[in-house]
Amino acid sequence: MIQLQNLHKDYIVNGKTVPALRGIDFTIEKGEIFGIIGHSGAGKSTLIRCINLLERPTSGKVVVDGIDLTKLDDRKLQEQRRQIGMIFQHFNLLSSATVADNVAFPLKLAKKPKAEIDRKVAELLALVGLQDHGNKYPAQLSGGQKQRVGIARALASDPKVLLCDEATSALDPQTTNSILALLRDINRKLGITVVLITHEMHVIRSICDRVAVIDGGKIVESGRVIDVFLKPQHPTTREFVEQVADSVELREAVAHEKAAGDRTIIRITFLGEQTYQPILFRTMQETGTSFNILQGTISRMKDTPYGQLVVELEGEDDRSRQTIDVLRRRGLEVEVIEWN
Ligand SMILES: Nc1ncnc2c1ncn2[C@@H]1O[C@H](COP(=O)(O)OP(=O)(O)O)[C@@H](O)[C@H]1O
Ligand SMILES: [Mg+2]
Is the pLDDT of residue 230 over 70? Predict the structure, then answer.
Protein backbone atom coordinates (compact mmCIF):
# COMPACT_ATOMS: atom_id res chain seq x y z
CA MET A 1 0.00 0.00 0.00
CA ILE A 2 2.78 2.42 0.98
CA GLN A 3 6.40 1.97 -0.02
CA LEU A 4 9.14 4.28 1.12
CA GLN A 5 12.40 3.83 -0.71
CA ASN A 6 15.68 5.32 0.40
CA LEU A 7 13.96 8.41 1.68
CA HIS A 8 16.16 11.36 2.66
CA LYS A 9 15.08 14.73 3.95
CA ASP A 10 17.45 17.59 4.73
CA TYR A 11 16.32 20.90 6.18
CA ILE A 12 18.40 23.97 5.47
CA VAL A 13 18.66 26.10 8.60
CA ASN A 14 20.68 29.34 8.36
CA GLY A 15 22.53 28.00 5.35
CA LYS A 16 23.40 24.74 7.14
CA THR A 17 22.10 21.33 6.14
CA VAL A 18 20.24 19.49 8.93
CA PRO A 19 19.55 15.87 7.95
CA ALA A 20 16.16 14.77 9.39
CA LEU A 21 15.67 11.49 7.47
CA ARG A 22 18.70 9.46 6.47
CA GLY A 23 17.67 6.63 4.19
CA ILE A 24 14.28 5.26 5.24
CA ASP A 25 13.01 2.05 3.64
CA PHE A 26 9.86 0.18 4.52
CA THR A 27 6.56 -1.09 3.20
CA ILE A 28 3.18 -0.78 4.85
CA GLU A 29 0.62 -3.39 3.84
CA LYS A 30 -2.97 -2.61 2.93
CA GLY A 31 -5.30 -2.80 5.93
CA GLU A 32 -2.70 -2.89 8.66
CA ILE A 33 -2.11 -0.54 11.56
CA PHE A 34 1.53 0.44 11.34
CA GLY A 35 3.22 2.30 14.18
CA ILE A 36 6.36 4.40 14.10
CA ILE A 37 7.89 5.12 17.50
CA GLY A 38 10.77 7.43 18.35
CA HIS A 39 11.95 10.12 20.74
CA SER A 40 11.36 13.80 20.15
CA GLY A 41 13.47 15.02 17.22
CA ALA A 42 13.94 11.51 15.79
CA GLY A 43 12.24 12.50 12.53
CA LYS A 44 8.73 11.08 13.06
CA SER A 45 6.72 14.11 11.93
CA THR A 46 9.01 14.66 8.97
CA LEU A 47 8.57 11.02 8.00
CA ILE A 48 4.78 10.93 8.24
CA ARG A 49 4.50 14.27 6.40
CA CYS A 50 6.59 12.81 3.59
CA ILE A 51 3.94 10.11 3.09
CA ASN A 52 1.45 12.67 1.74
CA LEU A 53 4.17 15.03 0.54
CA LEU A 54 3.21 17.81 2.95
CA GLU A 55 6.97 17.68 3.22
CA ARG A 56 8.83 17.01 -0.01
CA PRO A 57 11.67 14.49 0.48
CA THR A 58 15.14 15.58 -0.64
CA SER A 59 15.49 12.24 -2.40
CA GLY A 60 13.84 8.82 -2.52
CA LYS A 61 10.46 7.46 -3.53
CA VAL A 62 7.04 7.58 -1.88
CA VAL A 63 4.76 5.06 -3.56
CA VAL A 64 1.13 5.01 -2.40
CA ASP A 65 -1.22 2.48 -3.98
CA GLY A 66 1.20 1.96 -6.86
CA ILE A 67 1.78 5.65 -7.64
CA ASP A 68 5.06 7.47 -6.96
CA LEU A 69 3.82 10.75 -5.44
CA THR A 70 7.17 12.50 -5.93
CA LYS A 71 6.66 12.31 -9.70
CA LEU A 72 3.22 13.99 -9.83
CA ASP A 73 2.40 17.57 -10.83
CA ASP A 74 0.41 19.71 -8.36
CA ARG A 75 -3.03 18.88 -9.74
CA LYS A 76 -2.45 15.12 -9.78
CA LEU A 77 -0.90 15.31 -6.33
CA GLN A 78 -4.01 17.07 -4.97
CA GLU A 79 -6.10 14.27 -6.40
CA GLN A 80 -3.95 11.54 -4.84
CA ARG A 81 -3.90 13.33 -1.49
CA ARG A 82 -7.64 12.80 -1.18
CA GLN A 83 -6.78 9.13 -0.66
CA ILE A 84 -4.76 10.06 2.41
CA GLY A 85 -6.43 11.53 5.51
CA MET A 86 -4.45 13.00 8.36
CA ILE A 87 -5.02 13.83 12.03
CA PHE A 88 -2.81 15.90 14.31
CA GLN A 89 -1.75 16.19 17.94
CA HIS A 90 -3.46 19.57 18.33
CA PHE A 91 -6.44 18.66 16.14
CA ASN A 92 -6.07 21.69 13.77
CA LEU A 93 -9.80 22.47 13.73
CA LEU A 94 -11.31 25.71 12.44
CA SER A 95 -12.34 27.45 15.66
CA SER A 96 -14.90 29.73 13.98
CA ALA A 97 -16.73 26.85 12.30
CA THR A 98 -19.16 24.40 13.89
CA VAL A 99 -18.32 20.74 14.28
CA ALA A 100 -20.49 19.88 11.27
CA ASP A 101 -18.83 22.59 9.15
CA ASN A 102 -15.37 21.36 10.12
CA VAL A 103 -16.27 17.89 8.91
CA ALA A 104 -17.95 19.30 5.78
CA PHE A 105 -14.89 21.39 4.89
CA PRO A 106 -13.08 18.92 2.60
CA LEU A 107 -16.40 18.04 0.92
CA LYS A 108 -17.13 21.69 0.17
CA LEU A 109 -13.62 22.08 -1.23
CA ALA A 110 -14.35 19.13 -3.51
CA LYS A 111 -17.58 20.91 -4.55
CA LYS A 112 -19.90 18.06 -3.56
CA PRO A 113 -23.68 18.76 -3.72
CA LYS A 114 -25.24 20.02 -0.47
CA ALA A 115 -27.51 17.00 0.04
CA GLU A 116 -24.56 14.65 -0.27
CA ILE A 117 -22.50 16.75 2.14
CA ASP A 118 -25.30 16.74 4.75
CA ARG A 119 -25.75 13.01 4.48
CA LYS A 120 -22.03 12.32 4.68
CA VAL A 121 -21.48 14.65 7.65
CA ALA A 122 -24.32 13.00 9.60
CA GLU A 123 -22.87 9.57 8.83
CA LEU A 124 -19.35 10.57 9.90
CA LEU A 125 -20.51 12.25 13.11
CA ALA A 126 -22.40 9.07 14.00
CA LEU A 127 -19.32 6.97 13.24
CA VAL A 128 -17.20 8.93 15.71
CA GLY A 129 -20.00 9.20 18.31
CA LEU A 130 -20.71 12.93 17.95
CA GLN A 131 -24.17 12.80 16.38
CA ASP A 132 -25.54 15.27 18.94
CA HIS A 133 -22.68 17.78 18.70
CA GLY A 134 -22.86 19.00 15.10
CA ASN A 135 -23.90 22.54 16.00
CA LYS A 136 -21.27 23.10 18.70
CA TYR A 137 -18.01 24.96 18.23
CA PRO A 138 -14.62 23.31 18.90
CA ALA A 139 -14.11 25.41 22.06
CA GLN A 140 -17.17 23.72 23.59
CA LEU A 141 -15.66 20.25 23.21
CA SER A 142 -13.26 18.15 25.28
CA GLY A 143 -9.88 17.12 23.83
CA GLY A 144 -11.13 13.65 22.98
CA GLN A 145 -14.21 15.07 21.23
CA LYS A 146 -12.02 17.47 19.24
CA GLN A 147 -9.92 14.58 18.03
CA ARG A 148 -13.11 12.76 17.03
CA VAL A 149 -13.99 15.76 14.87
CA GLY A 150 -10.48 15.60 13.39
CA ILE A 151 -11.00 11.93 12.58
CA ALA A 152 -14.43 12.54 11.01
CA ARG A 153 -12.98 15.33 8.87
CA ALA A 154 -10.04 13.15 7.80
CA LEU A 155 -12.47 10.43 6.70
CA ALA A 156 -14.73 12.79 4.71
CA SER A 157 -13.00 12.14 1.39
CA ASP A 158 -13.14 8.33 1.88
CA PRO A 159 -9.37 7.92 2.14
CA LYS A 160 -7.58 4.60 1.86
CA VAL A 161 -4.93 5.68 4.33
CA LEU A 162 -5.16 7.55 7.62
CA LEU A 163 -1.99 9.22 8.93
CA CYS A 164 -1.92 10.04 12.65
CA ASP A 165 0.76 12.41 13.93
CA GLU A 166 0.87 11.94 17.73
CA ALA A 167 -2.93 11.91 17.65
CA THR A 168 -3.26 10.95 21.32
CA SER A 169 -0.28 12.80 22.81
CA ALA A 170 -2.37 15.73 24.05
CA LEU A 171 -4.95 13.47 25.69
CA ASP A 172 -5.21 11.86 29.14
CA PRO A 173 -4.78 8.07 29.35
CA GLN A 174 -8.48 7.22 29.42
CA THR A 175 -9.30 9.46 26.45
CA THR A 176 -6.24 8.07 24.66
CA ASN A 177 -7.67 4.59 25.00
CA SER A 178 -11.06 5.62 23.63
CA ILE A 179 -9.46 7.29 20.60
CA LEU A 180 -7.26 4.23 20.01
CA ALA A 181 -10.36 2.04 20.17
CA LEU A 182 -12.03 4.29 17.61
CA LEU A 183 -9.02 4.09 15.26
CA ARG A 184 -9.02 0.33 15.54
CA ASP A 185 -12.75 0.27 14.81
CA ILE A 186 -12.33 2.41 11.73
CA ASN A 187 -9.48 0.22 10.53
CA ARG A 188 -11.70 -2.86 10.88
CA LYS A 189 -14.98 -1.46 9.61
CA LEU A 190 -13.67 0.55 6.70
CA GLY A 191 -10.50 -1.39 5.94
CA ILE A 192 -8.43 1.79 6.06
CA THR A 193 -4.67 1.45 6.42
CA VAL A 194 -3.56 3.37 9.51
CA VAL A 195 -0.08 4.81 10.01
CA LEU A 196 0.56 6.33 13.38
CA ILE A 197 3.53 7.92 15.03
CA THR A 198 3.97 8.17 18.76
CA HIS A 199 6.55 8.26 21.51
CA GLU A 200 4.44 5.94 23.68
CA MET A 201 4.89 2.18 23.63
CA HIS A 202 1.44 1.78 25.14
CA VAL A 203 -0.10 3.14 21.93
CA ILE A 204 1.90 0.72 19.81
CA ARG A 205 1.06 -2.23 22.01
CA SER A 206 -2.66 -1.61 22.07
CA ILE A 207 -3.46 -1.26 18.38
CA CYS A 208 -0.52 -1.77 16.01
CA ASP A 209 0.21 -4.87 13.94
CA ARG A 210 3.75 -3.87 13.06
CA VAL A 211 6.13 -1.21 14.34
CA ALA A 212 9.25 0.59 13.17
CA VAL A 213 11.57 2.31 15.63
CA ILE A 214 13.10 5.53 14.35
CA ASP A 215 16.23 7.07 15.85
CA GLY A 216 18.30 9.89 14.39
CA GLY A 217 16.44 9.80 11.08
CA LYS A 218 16.95 6.05 10.57
CA ILE A 219 14.83 2.96 11.21
CA VAL A 220 16.83 0.99 13.77
CA GLU A 221 14.41 -1.90 14.21
CA SER A 222 11.10 -3.05 12.77
CA GLY A 223 8.80 -6.04 12.73
CA ARG A 224 5.64 -7.48 14.20
CA VAL A 225 4.79 -5.72 17.45
CA ILE A 226 4.78 -9.00 19.31
CA ASP A 227 8.33 -9.88 18.18
CA VAL A 228 9.79 -6.43 18.69
CA PHE A 229 8.10 -6.16 22.05
CA LEU A 230 9.18 -9.51 23.43
CA LYS A 231 12.69 -9.49 21.95
CA PRO A 232 13.82 -5.91 21.47
CA GLN A 233 17.28 -5.76 19.86
CA HIS A 234 18.25 -2.11 19.67
CA PRO A 235 18.91 -0.08 22.86
CA THR A 236 16.33 2.55 21.81
CA THR A 237 13.71 -0.17 21.38
CA ARG A 238 14.53 -1.56 24.83
CA GLU A 239 13.97 1.87 26.34
CA PHE A 240 10.52 2.05 24.79
CA VAL A 241 9.62 -1.46 25.86
CA GLU A 242 10.64 -0.60 29.41
CA GLN A 243 8.02 2.17 29.40
CA VAL A 244 5.41 -0.54 29.74
CA ALA A 245 7.31 -3.10 31.81
CA ASP A 246 7.54 -3.22 35.58
CA SER A 247 11.28 -3.37 35.25
CA VAL A 248 12.24 -1.50 38.41
CA GLU A 249 10.42 -3.88 40.72
CA LEU A 250 11.82 -6.78 38.74
CA ARG A 251 15.41 -5.64 39.18
CA GLU A 252 14.80 -5.29 42.90
CA ALA A 253 13.26 -8.74 43.16
CA VAL A 254 16.14 -10.34 41.24
CA ALA A 255 18.75 -8.57 43.38
CA HIS A 256 17.01 -9.73 46.52
CA GLU A 257 16.86 -13.37 45.41
CA LYS A 258 20.43 -13.37 44.17
CA ALA A 259 21.57 -12.29 47.60
CA ALA A 260 19.86 -15.40 48.98
CA GLY A 261 22.24 -17.59 46.87
CA ASP A 262 21.81 -20.86 44.90
CA ARG A 263 18.95 -19.68 42.72
CA THR A 264 18.36 -19.78 39.00
CA ILE A 265 16.08 -17.00 37.83
CA ILE A 266 14.25 -17.28 34.53
CA ARG A 267 11.70 -15.27 32.60
CA ILE A 268 9.00 -17.29 30.87
CA THR A 269 6.83 -15.85 28.13
CA PHE A 270 3.44 -17.34 27.28
CA LEU A 271 1.70 -16.38 24.05
CA GLY A 272 -1.88 -16.79 22.90
CA GLU A 273 -3.68 -19.86 24.29
CA GLN A 274 -0.60 -20.89 26.30
CA THR A 275 -1.26 -17.93 28.54
CA TYR A 276 -4.19 -19.70 30.16
CA GLN A 277 -2.74 -23.20 30.40
CA PRO A 278 -1.06 -24.73 33.44
CA ILE A 279 2.14 -25.70 31.56
CA LEU A 280 4.41 -24.27 34.23
CA PHE A 281 2.86 -26.07 37.16
CA ARG A 282 2.70 -29.39 35.34
CA THR A 283 6.35 -29.18 34.30
CA MET A 284 7.53 -28.31 37.79
CA GLN A 285 5.56 -31.21 39.22
CA GLU A 286 6.95 -33.67 36.70
CA THR A 287 10.56 -32.58 37.19
CA GLY A 288 10.14 -32.25 40.94
CA THR A 289 11.38 -28.68 41.01
CA SER A 290 10.53 -26.18 43.74
CA PHE A 291 9.95 -22.70 42.47
CA ASN A 292 8.82 -19.23 43.43
CA ILE A 293 7.08 -16.71 41.23
CA LEU A 294 8.83 -13.36 41.68
CA GLN A 295 6.78 -11.38 39.27
CA GLY A 296 3.97 -11.93 36.81
CA THR A 297 1.97 -10.04 34.25
CA ILE A 298 -0.77 -11.01 31.90
CA SER A 299 -1.57 -8.49 29.23
CA ARG A 300 -2.61 -8.18 25.64
CA MET A 301 -0.95 -7.02 22.47
CA LYS A 302 -3.71 -5.94 20.16
CA ASP A 303 -5.64 -9.24 20.04
CA THR A 304 -3.00 -11.60 21.40
CA PRO A 305 -2.92 -12.36 25.11
CA TYR A 306 0.52 -12.91 26.59
CA GLY A 307 1.95 -13.52 30.00
CA GLN A 308 5.39 -13.13 31.48
CA LEU A 309 6.48 -14.76 34.70
CA VAL A 310 9.79 -14.31 36.43
CA VAL A 311 10.41 -17.50 38.30
CA GLU A 312 13.12 -18.59 40.68
CA LEU A 313 14.10 -22.26 40.51
CA GLU A 314 15.56 -23.79 43.62
CA GLY A 315 18.22 -26.47 43.56
CA GLU A 316 21.18 -27.51 41.43
CA ASP A 317 22.11 -26.29 37.99
CA ASP A 318 21.52 -29.65 36.31
CA ARG A 319 17.98 -29.92 37.57
CA SER A 320 17.26 -26.33 36.53
CA ARG A 321 18.70 -26.93 33.08
CA GLN A 322 16.50 -29.96 32.64
CA THR A 323 13.42 -28.03 33.74
CA ILE A 324 14.19 -25.22 31.30
CA ASP A 325 14.59 -27.77 28.49
CA VAL A 326 11.17 -29.23 29.19
CA LEU A 327 9.54 -25.78 29.27
CA ARG A 328 11.12 -24.87 25.94
CA ARG A 329 10.07 -28.17 24.40
CA ARG A 330 6.53 -27.34 25.42
CA GLY A 331 6.76 -24.20 23.34
CA LEU A 332 7.44 -21.55 25.96
CA GLU A 333 10.01 -18.79 25.59
CA VAL A 334 12.51 -19.08 28.42
CA GLU A 335 15.22 -16.56 29.09
CA VAL A 336 17.73 -17.16 31.87
CA ILE A 337 18.20 -13.98 33.84
CA GLU A 338 20.59 -15.38 36.42
CA TRP A 339 22.22 -18.78 36.85
CA ASN A 340 22.89 -19.70 40.47
N1 LIG B 1 10.73 22.87 9.27
C2 LIG B 1 11.91 22.52 9.80
N3 LIG B 1 13.02 23.26 9.57
C4 LIG B 1 14.21 22.89 10.07
N5 LIG B 1 14.42 21.80 10.81
C6 LIG B 1 13.37 21.00 11.08
C7 LIG B 1 12.07 21.33 10.59
N8 LIG B 1 11.20 20.36 11.00
C9 LIG B 1 11.95 19.49 11.72
N10 LIG B 1 13.25 19.88 11.77
C11 LIG B 1 14.35 19.15 12.44
O12 LIG B 1 14.35 17.82 11.92
C13 LIG B 1 14.56 16.88 12.97
C14 LIG B 1 13.36 15.93 13.06
O15 LIG B 1 12.21 16.65 13.48
P16 LIG B 1 10.75 16.03 13.54
O17 LIG B 1 10.49 15.29 12.28
O18 LIG B 1 9.82 17.09 13.92
O19 LIG B 1 10.93 14.97 14.72
P20 LIG B 1 9.84 14.33 15.72
O21 LIG B 1 8.50 14.50 15.11
O22 LIG B 1 10.29 12.91 15.85
O23 LIG B 1 9.98 15.06 17.02
C24 LIG B 1 14.81 17.68 14.23
O25 LIG B 1 16.20 17.85 14.37
C26 LIG B 1 14.13 18.99 13.92
O27 LIG B 1 14.76 20.05 14.63
MG1 LIG C 1 6.70 15.37 15.83
Answer: yes
| Top mutation candidate among 11, 55, 197 for ligand 1, by most atoms within 8 Å of CB | 11
Confidence of residue 10 (pLDDT cuts 50, 70, 90): very high
Calculate Rg over the CA atoms of the chain: 24
* Angle, CA of 45, 50 and 53, to the nearest 5°: 125
The structure's pTM equals 0.83
Same domain flag for 82 and 6: yes
- Note whether 65 and 121 are same-domain residues: yes
* Beta-carbon contacts of residue 273 (< 8 Å; ≥ 6 apart): none
Q: How many domains does the chain have?
A: 2
Instruction: Give the Å distance between the CA of 217 and the centre of ligand 1.
Output: 10
CATH number for the domain harbouring residue 187 = 3.40.50.300
Picking from 217, 242, 267, the residue at the C-terminal end of a domain is 242
Strand partners, 333: 269
CB atoms within 10 A of CB 234: 15
Mean per-residue pLDDT, 3-24:
96
Residue closest via CA to ligand 1's atom 25 equals 41
Of 195, 213, 242, at which residue does a domain stop?
A: 242
What is the H or E stretch that residue 187 is in? helix 173-190
Q: Which domain holds residue 271?
A: 247-338
| CA separation, residue 240 to residues 39, 204, 235, 249 (Å) | 9, 10, 9, 17
Q: Are residues 308 and 198 in the same domain?
A: no
Same domain, 170 and 258: no
Q: Element (H or E) spanning 298, and its range?
A: strand 291-301
